[in-house]
Amino acid sequence: MSVFENSxxxxxxxxxxxxxxxxxxxxxxxxxxxxxxxxxxxTDPEAVTxxxxxxxxxxxxxxxxxxxxPTDLKPDIEMTMAADTAHMxxxxxxxxxxxxxxxKIILKxxxxxxxxxxxxxxxxxxxxPELLKEKGYGKLISK
Length: 143
Description:
Layout lengths: L6 H15 L5 H8 L2 E7 L3 E6 L12 E4 L8 E6 H7 L6 H6 L3 E4 L2 H11 L2 H11 L9
Parallel strand pairs: 1-4
Antiparallel strand pairs: 1-2, 2-3, 4-5
Helix pairs in contact: 1-6, 2-5
């Protein structure tokens, strides 16, 4: 049984985290500096989030564009994982290198670019549980 009841709940939590990160003055510029399109494909429930750091952002105040749901953008990097893995990752409870080695996360594209983004997203590990509480999903926070 998945942590998330459905795709909408996933987008309301992990998807919202990504939406907030695109305008974050600490995280956003570091992701933008990567200059790549990263697509995250999730299973159980099915969801897709694409981060476009290649093109100029379409929203004022954003450093990158984030698309929750299908898009025609062709990713430079594609990461596929269970939604539960993403949920645990954003709580700082998944070692990315280990997850890649164990095939819990399947990566297509430049592994070094992905690993280089880890320090950029670390502040989100604290923000994700806060977002869960804010949205009324505090029970989903792992102990």
